[in-house]
Amino acid sequence: MAKSPALPRQISLFDMDSPLHGKVRGERSIMDFPFFVLSKNAHLEPIEYRHDQVTIQIRPSATGVATMWDKEILLYVASLVAQAIADGQVADEDVTFAAHDFFRITGVERPSIRDYRRFAEALERLQGTQIKTNIETGSKIDRGWFSWLSEAQVEYEKMANGDELLRYVRVRPCNWLYRAIKRDQRIYHYHHDYFRLGAIERRMYEIAHCYCENGPIEITLEDLHRKIGSMGPMKRLKQLVKTIEGENRLPEYDVDLVETVTGEYTDSIGRRRKSVTTSVRMRPKQKSVAAPMHAAA
Question: Which of 105, 112, 181, 290 sits between 20 and 30 A of 88, alpha carbons compared?
């Protein structure tokens, strides 16, 4: 009996970029400033950040403002663009990748249907969230509103049981971020344990990564609260910093909670009290140095 002719293999319409090699890379501006909410719960109110002449306005999509977990996709996309530039390739504005490579990089070994659904929802929030800022990139300032992703398309594969599985993604990052990566090239490598951290820990790691290049930094708890974009009480942040200090949670950096007496005052019933300023000190971890080897006698 003659064999039936083999069916041609279906080729993806998407022209795939190579998988990401090496470490995840982040651009300085999106590391330094609180562009993303810290909670996984939908934040449906506008956000405004003003500090040291920097202004950021954020409008939510119908499903909320992009979160720190949604930011993982943006970091992955930025890494692919930075990788192409480092390899001497022409960095196209459109970035195409396989969803499974994104999960590999972010430490999801066996992505579930739920993981893929959350991935698709994150793409929607990144495309729907609107940002306006006076932070310049590539010596230009965008005066209007922009989204993190100006375009996002996905390709699904139909499974035998009728389910659809997200396979390939094509996105176009906003001009603001694309200029920053291509022209400013203020690119930092991320430690692989970053993806194991909670949202506030991620922000603390990013801030330390931006400012600890030349040694320790110290920032008041109030400024840290603003810088990370926290919407919770200051007391809660203080407790978390104590826990991070005690458990040595941050990769690459040590964290210390510092309380300094700055004066005295009299309270409402005449008792003398000490004024205390609480700060957070972050510094690079000391690298262990191997003992020198001695030649045998």
Answer: 105
Position of tokens 């603003």?
Answer: 226
Q: What are phi and psi of 56, to 5 degrees?
A: -135, 125
Long-range contacts of 229-236 (CB under 8 A, 24+ apart): 229/34, 229/35, 229/36, 229/37, 229/38, 229/47, 229/49, 229/203, 230/38, 230/200, 231/37, 231/38, 231/39
Alpha helices, DSSP H only, in 68-132?
71-86, 99-105, 113-128
9 inside domain: no
Question: Is position 19 within any domain?
Answer: no
Domain identity same for 183 and 205: no
Tokens of 60: 């939510």
Edge-to-edge, what's the strand order for the sheet holding 164-173?
95-98, 164-173, 149-158
Residue type, 32: D
Domain of 223, CATH number, reads 1.10.10
- pTM (predicted TM-score): 0.86
Q: Give the pLDDT confidence score for residue 267 in this predicted structure.
A: 72
β-bridge mates for residue 283, sequence order: 254
Residues with pLDDT less than 50, the chain? 1-13, 289-297
Size of the chain in residues: 297
Q: Are residues 217 and 186 in the same domain?
A: no
Predicted pLDDT at 124:
96
CB atoms within 10 A of CB 41: 9
Other CB atoms within a 10 A radius of the CB of residue 222 amount to: 13
The values of phi and psi at residue 182, to 5°, are -75, -40
Residue 133: alpha-carbon gap to chain centroid: 18
